Amino acid sequence: MNTPKLLQRTLTAVAAMLLANATMAQVRVEGTVYDGSQRYALQGVSVMTSSGSGTTTDSLGHYSIKLGATDSIYFSYLGKVTSKIPAKGIDDPTQFNMSLDLPVVSLPSVFVDPKSYRMDSLENRKEYQKIFDFDRSGFLVDKKASGDPKFGIGLDMDILFDGKRNKRMEGFQQFLIQEEQEKSIDHRFTRALVKRLTGLEPPALDTFMHRYRPGYEFCQATTSDWEFYEYIRNSGKYFTELWKQEHPN
User: Fold this and answer.
1) pTM of this structure
2) Alpha-carbon distance 181 to 161, whole Å?
3) How do residues 142-184 score in pLDDT, each as one tens digit?
4) CA 37 to CA 87: how far, in whole Å?
5) Which of 103, 140, 156, 227 can pair with 222 through a Cys bridge, CB separation 3.0 to 4.6 Å?
6) Contact 40, 97 (CB under 8 A)
7) Residue 96: φ, ψ to 5°
8) DSSP secondary-structure letter at 213?
9) In this structure, what DSSP letter does residue 89 have?
């Protein structure tokens, strides 16, 4: 009898059985996420598992994700996280719908900011409307809620010929826009969130917050919580190794 070949076949069979058991232990969970009234489907809700995988709901509020036998599933939207539901507690994985305690009337036009922050931003825009709507070309500009410029009839002669005023207005306009963008980043990239996702403590936490602070464009591009959380988690793992090398003691 060829013992090495027999051992190889035995190991292959065992590996196949383990893989089959692991596959059988996984279950695909599907469903739709609704608002508090259970009438409106929510797009961009982060659906995550305790093992670290995740996805987001589509335009119809639908999601599909695989869970292990010991996994739990939870949902995150606008900074609010639901409790974790164990996979074994899901009766029908093909219709595991979720209702979030969030009235549809309070939903903002983008999926990253809760109503309170959006209202603060709108109030700031209203207070400095003339500065935000300033256009050096001299054309009278009317910016609607969408932010698209609508050129009116006529010219503002003061703007055309007052160079110093133009520079002051442009400088103040850029300052307000930059301040608005920085507040938007601060609203998402918080110490509490980073600490919870990375487990970092000061002074490592302070260094991480400075080195890995995302840009405004990146925050706008990652419209779902799950994508943003993945950036923080992955950056935290890389930073932790660097921190250990930089601070061996």
Assistant:
1) 0.46
2) 31
3) 444 444 444 444 445 454 455 666 677 677 767 777 888 888 8
4) 25
5) 227
6) no
7) -95, 80
8) P
9) G
